[in-house]
Amino acid sequence: MYKRQLWSGVKPLSAAALSKADKGYVYIKGTVTELSEDKNGLRFKLDRKLSVRITTKSLKMFKEHNVNFLLHNKLLLTGKLTFNRQLPGLILYHPAQILP
């Protein structure tokens, strides 16, 4: 019988050290360094490099689950990492993409 935990082998990437080779479905850790909300939803940056976006429609679900984003919070996120104009980006659709 195996005694290893399911996620014991997962090594999250650092938001500050992302490269184009890292694209795809990933786990990313970092600290919230910028935060803004407008009519299109919520945007924040992790370690001044990774742009994370939550649409207005999805943001309602985050608020229903009492998920709050504050500056200097450390987060572990999961999702599909993309690059647009050499800048890394991630879109959050559900609170389950924020891991403990």
State the gist of this model.
9% of the residues lie in helices and 47% in strands. The chain has 100 residues and is mainly β.
Commentary on this structure:
The protein is mainly beta and 100 residues long. It has one domain (13-99): OB fold (Dihydrolipoamide Acetyltransferase, E2P), CATH 2.40.50. The protein has 1 helix and 7 strands. A hairpin with a 2-residue loop joins strand 2 and strand 3. The chain is globular and about 35 Å long.
Features:
mainly beta; 7 strands; 1 helix; 9% helix; 100 residues
Rg for CA atoms: 14 Å
Helix/strand structural class: mainly beta
Give the domain tally. Answer: 1
Percent range for β-strand residues? over 45%
Uncertain residue ranges: none
Enumerate the strands of the largest sheet in spatial order, edge to edge or round the barrel. Answer: 2-3-4-6-5
**Number of helical regions:** 1
- Number-wise, the strands total 7
Q: Using the alpha-carbon principal axes, give the shape.
A: globular
Topology of helices and strands:
Layout: E1 13-14, E2 24-38, E3 41-46, E4 50-55, H1 56-64, E5 74-84, E6 87-91, E7 98-99
Parallel strand pairs: 1-2, 4-6
Antiparallel strand pairs: 2-3, 2-5, 3-4, 5-6, 5-7
